[in-house]
Amino acid sequence: MGYRRTEEGVIPGILNGSITWCQGFSEPNSGSDLASLKTSATLDGDEWIINGQKVWTTQAQHADYVFLLTRTDPNVEQHAGISYLLVPMHQEGVDVRPITQVDGSSEFNEVFFTNAHCPKGNVIGGVNNGWKVAMTTLGFERGSSSTTGYRRFLKEWEHILSETRRVGKSDDELVREDLVKSWSKSRSWRSTATAH
Q1: Which terminus, N or C, of the chain has the lesser number of Cβ atoms within 10 Å?
Q2: Of the residues 27, 92, 141, 173, which is catalytic?
Q3: Which residues are registered as beta bridge partners of 54?
């Protein structure tokens, strides 16, 4: 199957921005107690079978993969039975439902997993060691998260440029001025990110 990428196989896509990601941590009944998560992953041969729900998942509707915290051992202390999986989003068993906000936007989503599949090797940091990996992830997210975010912004900018050309507005002075400002911001963001 096309989604069977190993940890090493996704690195080039992360670096060049061709693979998009979302983060599946929060759950409806966990609140601030992340370690109480209920989404489960059970090993079945060479695959993890995943069931559960995540909420407030930013940009899940556009993501190719999710960094997913799952309960892989329900019989140990909460923090000890969690694994950190790289789960393909484009498959049966993954249902993304937008959460519409007051302004009409839907940046956040609920994500439901019903017997979704994940390759056995897509575990980061080892089975049942996901809590440690998650804390490291959050540390970077709250510190130097800008190191990769600019790539998504630049990808969106390139799409807007393409649409501008398609509708014949690429010679419009005001449009060009806005495009240049946006491009300059993305380059500035990149310079800041690579300095970390």
Answers
A1: N
A2: 141
A3: 111
Residue 195's pLDDT is what? 46
pLDDT attached to residue 55: 94
| 141 given a catalytic annotation | yes
Confidence (pTM): 0.69
Which 3-state string (H, E, C) describes 48-102? EEEEEEECCCCCHHHCCEEEEEEECCCCCCHHHHEEEEEEECCCCCEEEEECCCC
CA distance 73 to 42: 9
Tell me the pLDDT of the chain averaged across its residues. 84
Which residues share a beta bridge with 114?
A: 51
DSSP H/E element including 193: helix 173-194
| C-alpha to C-alpha distance for 59 and 61, rounded to whole angstroms | 5
